[in-house]
Amino acid sequence: MTTTSPEIRSSATGAPRAPRPDRGEGVRGGLLTVLTWVIAIAFFFPVAWMAVTAFKQEAQAASSPPTWFFTPTLDQFRAVIDGGAGVYFANSLIATGFSTVLVIALAVPASYALAIRPVKKTQDVLFFFMSTKMLPVVAVIVPIYVIAGRLHVLDTIWTLVVLYTAMNLPIAVWMMRSFFQEIPGEVLEAASMDGAGLMRTLRAVLIPMVAPGLAATALICVIFAWNEFFFALNLTAARAATVPIFITSTMTSEGLFLARLSAASLLASLPVLIAGWVAQKQLVRGLSMGAIK
């Protein structure tokens, strides 16, 4: 008595036939793809609408129903630049750049100590770092304002540098610790056997290995500092105001200049978009190392 093989074989070649795709699985995959595109378009639509509105005249931007066909113009961008946007952009660049450098310089040794050479009650130390992010900023703005006033540092860009550094340091330490934990212990043992000291190991071995994570951390700090509004609104005036403060200038007693607001917002978004595009390779590698769980 012969037994039938469970494999389905082709009558011509005798080779196993490829299994037929599950019809239900194909339908579910198609629906998932459509849903993904719908969600992506829903999130991207406001950004696209802002970009389109930036090239309209004010009357066209405020029209109801919306004006779909129009002649693009750069008038709103000229108005933004002529309105003194350069000073605000310079202040944002200084505050964001210096605070990000300080955050990375402080976060690297701190995260190294917590990951490679952990101290007792490391989790308590991490909780201390992250607990500062749980405090609402509105609860500390009054004492910060009083202290800044007594030190005569109100409306100075360096006050924002210090605050942005303190604001981003906890998240940077938390992220960088995760990146350092991904390094195999054998690498540190090999560096030690070669006679490398702590600083040389950190500079020549560890930093190159966590460079993608470093880029991801720096970019997140840049985004947080560049978009920060509350401290800049309450602690600056004419000399140290940043880009988010400039954007609010499009809302006047005469009304909301929607096209100019869109142009200012588009210009404000470009530096972060360019930074993300330049560092996209390192950013993807960094985020895949396990920092974002």
Automatic annotation (TrEMBL):
Keywords: Cell membrane, Membrane, Transmembrane, Transmembrane helix, Transport
Keyword Transport in annotation: yes
Location of the ABC transmembrane type-1 domain: 89-279
Gene Ontology biological process: transmembrane transport
Places the protein is found: Cell membrane
Membrane-topology descriptor: Multi-pass membrane protein
GO cellular component, one term: plasma membrane
Coiled coil: none
Gene3D superfamilies, per database record: MetI-like
Comp. bias (Polar residues): 1-13
Main location: membrane
Pfam families according to UniProt: BPD_transp_1
Record bears the keyword Transmembrane: yes
Region called Disordered, residue ranges: 1-24
Annotated transmembrane regions: 30-52, 93-114, 126-145, 157-180, 201-226, 257-279
Family as reported in the entry's similarity comment: Belongs to the binding-protein-dependent transport system permease family.
Protein name, UniProt field: Carbohydrate ABC transporter membrane protein 2, CUT1 family
Native source species: Ruania alba
